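Section 3.1: Structural characterization of target chains.
Under the original work plan, the team committed to producing a structural model for every single-chain target entering the pipeline before any wet-lab resources were allocated. The record below documents one such target. The sequence was received from the expression subgroup and is listed exactly as submitted; it comprises 379 residues.
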Amino acid sequence: MTPDSSPKQAVSWITLLLAGFLVYRGSSRIIAGSATFWSWLCLGLGIYWIVLEMVRWWRFRSTEHASAPPAAPPVPPSADDAPLRSIVFLLEAPRDTNGKAWMDHLGEALGIRFGEGEEATGILMPMPHPINAHGGECFMMSVPGGFFWILNARTPYMDDPAGCAKRLRDRRLQDAVLGHKAWLSVDLITWNDKTTEPDAPYAVIGKAMAALAGPDVLAVFAPEINRLNVFDPTILPVLSGGTPLALFEDPTFSPVLGASDDDEQMEAAIAEARSRWPEFVAEFQKRDASDGPPYLVKAPFTSNGETEHMWIEVTDIEESTVHGILANHPHRLDDFHQGQMVRVPSATISDWVCASDDHGTLGGWTQKVLANQIRRSDG
């Protein structure tokens, strides 16, 4: 916090809001005669945070009015300035949070018993939050080690879904961004256990999100690294496995590029793949057909006016024709399916990937362009 900040900025309103609610929740139960350990804990934490914020405010005022403040080392960024540690689900429709079943399921996934009795090991309670001003619910989750928000919003996550979709090159991601109507997230508020690994909060977030996943999830987004991926049940083990950000290292599916992807970088990548096609042929001819990595080419396929560029596992190259097995799930093409035997003219390929004894892995130029475009996108 810098001396030229206003007192409103010096006092964290989010912390005060949370502290006030805890004081209200704990004191109301104590006054009603139903005091439990968690009632006293809520009251104690709320009072502690309020006192802490008032001390911060008093120190700010003292610094602001000092005529010659002593020199001090630079202050590291506060938690409010740090990147948001969160995972977000883009939903096809608003999620219903009525009932207690989802809370029990979440607690089971985290190994925690939510409640207020002596057997409880965590807290999960509804809270007000300004981000849901347009509709939705907010919950504060306390687990051993830290506090988290669970936000269930009834509006699109992006202010301009159409604009975000235009910056994406994968057709599945475009449809997910355009089609989502709501979102669900787990966000870190504060992590108190400094003895754990730096990514320990993400382990909790990932397990919670895996428990909250469902058929209404279209895509998953990580704000801290600004990465978006298509959702599929196959990613659930990665989400709950302790390092959920690993699921953003590669697309959930092999990317399906649309025919409209004709920007300069993509066209240059396709041109390089075609000009270096003889290298692929040479590597394919000396391959060990009995064992080894697959040899892949990407080529356009068209059905009912729709064109998609998809990957083929090559089985044979005959003059100017490539034979192989379709490796993609087509996105909109009803006439094709994964595992189908296909053949394409080699002159129409848009990319290729193969192993090389001399150079490691060759090719993948459109993949590199796509990965860079996804990283730059804020969608």
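The chain is about 35% helix and 25% strand.
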